[in-house]
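Record minuted for completeness.

…
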Amino acid sequence: MKMNIRAAFIGGGNMGGALVRGLIARSLPPQNIAVGEAMQARRIALADELGVHVTADNREAVHGADVVVLAVKPQDMAGTVQALADVFVPGKPLLLSIAAGIRVADIAAWCGGQVPVVRAMPNRPALNSAGATAIYAPAGLSAAHRELAEQVLGAVGTTVWVPDEDALDVVTALSGSGPAYFFLLAELMTDAAVNLGLPRAGARELAIQTLFGSGRMARDSDGDLARLRAEVTSKGGTTEAALRSFDGANLRGIVAAALGAATDRSREMARTFGENSRK
């Protein structure tokens, strides 16, 4: 079904570009998409590859948009939104922020509190249309705006709504940063296999394919991760020996501490780049 919205992006980097590609793949005409991007090389690449309208002028990009995706760094969000507030207020597009840590209340305040705002936390696999995105909408946001947000973010993968904004800090730690954890585990498994005698190229290929295949199995299953793990673990076998080693090293505690650290950092970024920037 052909989409009939006008979408603007402030920021045409990795995530912004992935969403643009996803929307075009979902049949949104390129002429319905505008991208405000400061870097000339990115503007040229997006225009050449996708045929969308690109400009260094953010005000030009957002003019007449139904939804504006704010794909800028957290530290740049306040200045970006404040500079466009006089355009946002009369047009009232849905502002969809994918910046870590920056709260809906801050973005709304920078616009004078008169523009609908949604926050989302996508992750890097969105670049391969396999993203996991959590979305938060404040009370009172219309069903139409919720549907629009899901339509845009669903163009690059799975979407999950969270009930409160604080949950997005945990999402940032879980799925936002999560790909790095899996990559690190595959990297460490590769190194360990090399130390045990496997050639590096073969070890790396086996680790990567195991990472991919395991994710595919989990995605295609009923989601019971404990059952999937148990099905691979024969009593008295090699997998059980490895898992016991993980338990002995307190892997559960290590993972909990890592996600806690990432969650705390997300909240710290909100205080630094959000609330404090208005003081």
Q: What stands out?
A: The domain at 176-267 is CATH 1.10.3730.10 (ProC C-terminal domain-like fold).
